[in-house]
Write a structure and sequence with these properties.
Largest sheet: 4 strands, antiparallel
Helix content: 55-70%
Strand content: 5-15%
Number of domains: 1
Distance between the termini: 34 Å
Strand order of the largest sheet: 3-4-5-6
Shape: globular
Order of helices and strands: HHEEHHHHHHHHHHHHHHHEEEEHH
Number of helices: 19
Length: 584
């Protein structure tokens, strides 16, 4: 069953590429059907999963490279099953979001299906070589998503993403080889390495192997100071790509810490746990303050991911403080860290899709080019408000359950670090409130073409449009009037600027072709620094496919915030096992 879940998407991708005569619209709907079927299989697995069992569930093992005891070995437990379910949910959301994709939709759908298999395989893998193969395939898949369907400086951002994460994966491979050579059995089997940890009698070598693993996983997560690829990759990726990058691919790094580094190198993790705590706290603060300083909505959301990944590392670092806390608090911190992986995927995935709405309507993410959107787009405003309040950790959302457990568990082990990290919550609250104020309140300001760069359109009397600088009217005091702009409605439904700049789908003459224009400066989407070409009219509120993609993610976050027990019942036994393994 697990093998079917992992391989079904890539098999469907091959079929889509082989059926060249399949209409583009049918290809997109086929993607939705396959993603929905995969999610149904995962839910069936969840229904039959025994959280209290000691053995892996749905385990399958086939010999692959017998000379190094590497195998196709997959299985799930309480750590991987929630992330597999999260992956299935987010890829279905991406499929629904992309139903109106007009640029090579068949290849687009096939690429995302390939990427889904890579992510599912990483979470299901119980062999280090198999883990590494799927881990690297996820890098390749996301590279082509950004380079082929992104906008702005997408090719540069894709290359930066690939180089950073690929170099990190090489460090990870060195760590895997170190585990193989340091073990008595000379195996890459993760179950065997966990049961009989290598390098326990060699603290120096164990620390070096942990360093290699940590470097590779820190780049992928990403953590400070290895996060510099993230803002550019997110800003220039298509909306669906950003949602998958933040919601799923970043979790491959944090999952690697809890699945590989902690249980396979328990003594080294204990020895260097305080370093993990410090890096986690720095990531929390750096990500929050950097996000607060952004003038671009998508870059702001990207930096909040660094902040939230810092909380996860804080919880996992606290789990290694064996001498500073009892088993109970350290288990709570670990449960909170895994819960945060799921929560962040849901909320940040929704936020990036909402940022994609801004791009599809106006070709820009800049705060100063938008304002007062609550009047023309109440559904968009409501969804953004829910996602923002959920991300800042408000009670009633999944993020509150996660962060509450992380801080509760960390307070006994590392009280000073936990108290300092609370500052990150305050800054996160401030930045999301500022974002809501900029985008949703005040006079209605819409991204539009103007003579001077940086101009915007503000609603005025009798539907007049007045030029404004930075969201302020140049003359007069305009009232809030429902003047809306659907930017580039005639250019297609992709992610590119309506004038054909970046990698959009509109032809340079705005006729709806599939041309690719010049690369654009950050956040503008226009090669000359001016606004993208705009067709004034309605600023469309969330459309049906956007509602279908975004609202279930927000609903699940609220559901997990109000009824956390079903997910906690799955995570807690596995987290307790990890803490016991680290305490050896």
């Amino acid at each position: 069953m697990l093998t079917l879940v992992v391989l079904l998407p890539v098999l469907a991708a091959g079929a889509l590429l082989a059926l060249r005569r399949l209409p583009d619209r049918w290809a997109l709907w086929a993607w939705v059907v396959v993603a929905a079927a995969d999610l149904a299989l995962v839910l069936w697995m969840w229904w039959r999963f025994d959280a209290g069992g000691d053995a892996l569930a749905y385990e399958a093992k086939v010999r692959w490279i017998p000379t190094v005891d590497a195998a196709y070995h997959v299985g799930v437990d309480g750590l991987s099953l929630p992330l597999i379910a999260l992956t299935a949910v987010l890829f279905l959301a991406a499929a629904l979001w992309s139903l109106r994709e007009g640029d090579r939709p068949r290849r687009y759908a096939a690429l995302f299906l390939f990427l889904q298999t890579a992510c599912l395989g990483t979470f299901a893998a119980q062999d280090l070589i198999l883990f590494f193969v799927f881990f690297d395939l996820s890098i390749v898949g996301m590279y082509f998503v950004i380079a082929g369907w992104g906008h702005g400086n997408n090719r540069r951002s894709a290359l930066k993403f690939f180089l950073y994460t690929f170099v990190g994966s090489l460090a990870l491979l060195l760590g895997f080889i170190g585990l193989f050579l340091g073990g008595e059995e000379r195996t890459f089997d993760m179950v065997k390495l966990t049961a009989n940890p290598p390098l326990e009698d060699s603290p120096l070598l164990g620390g070096l192997v942990l360093l290699a693993l940590a470097l590779g996983l820190a780049v992928k997560t990403p953590l400070f100071p290895f996060h510099t690829w993230l803002p550019d990759a997110h800003t220039d990726a298509p909306a669906a790509g950003s949602a998958i990058l933040a919601g799923v691919l970043l979790k491959l790094g944090t999952y690697g810490f809890v699945r590989i580094a902690m249980p396979m190198l328990p003594s080294a993790w204990q020895q260097w746990a305080m370093v993990a705590v410090v890096v986690g706290v720095i990531s929390v603060l750096w990500g929050a303050f950097a996000a607060l300083a952004q003038a671009d909505a998508k870059r702001m959301i990207a930096y909040t991911s660094v902040n939230h990944m810092g909380y996860i590392l804080l919880g996992l670092g606290a789990a290694g403080m064996v001498g500073g806390a009892d088993t109970g608090p350290r288990t709570v911190a670990t449960v909170g860290a895994v819960y945060q992986m799921v929560s962040h995927g849901l909320l940040t995935g929704a936020l990036f899709l909402l940022a994609g709405v801004l791009w599809s309507r106006g070709g820009t993410y800049e705060f100063r080019r938008w304002g007062g959107l609550a009047r023309p787009a109440p559904l968009f405003a409501a969804a953004l408000g829910v996602a923002a309040f959920g991300s800042l950790g408000l009670p009633g959302f999944s993020s509150f359950i996660a962060e509450f457990q992380i801080f509760t568990g960390a307070l006994q082990a590392v009280p000073v670090a936990a108290i300092v990290a609370v500052t990150g919550i305050l800054v996160t609250a401030a930045l999301f409130l500022v974002a809501i104020q900029r985008l949703l309140t005040g006079p209605t300001v819409l991204a539009a073409v103007a003579d001077g760069a940086g101009d915007a359109v503000v609603a005025g009397d009798a539907g007049d449009e007045q030029t404004a600088q930075g969201g302020r009217a140049a003359t007069g005091s305009p009232r809030r009037t429902r003047v809306e702009a659907h930017v580039g409605a005639h250019t297609g439904h992709g992610h590119g600027a309506p004038d054909g700049t970046g990698h959009g789908h509109g032809a340079p003459d705005g006729t709806g072709g599939h041309g690719h224009g010049a690369e654009a400066p950050r956040g503008d989407g226009a090669g000359d620094g001016s606004r993208p070409r705009t067709q004034h009219g309605r600023f469309a509120d969330l459309r049906g496919h956007e509602v279908a993609a975004i609202m279930p993610l927000l609903f699940l976050s609220v559901l997990l915030g109000l009824l956390p027990r079903p997910l906690l019942d799955v995570i807690e036994p596995a987290a307790a096992t990890v803490v016991q393994l680290v305490s050896r």
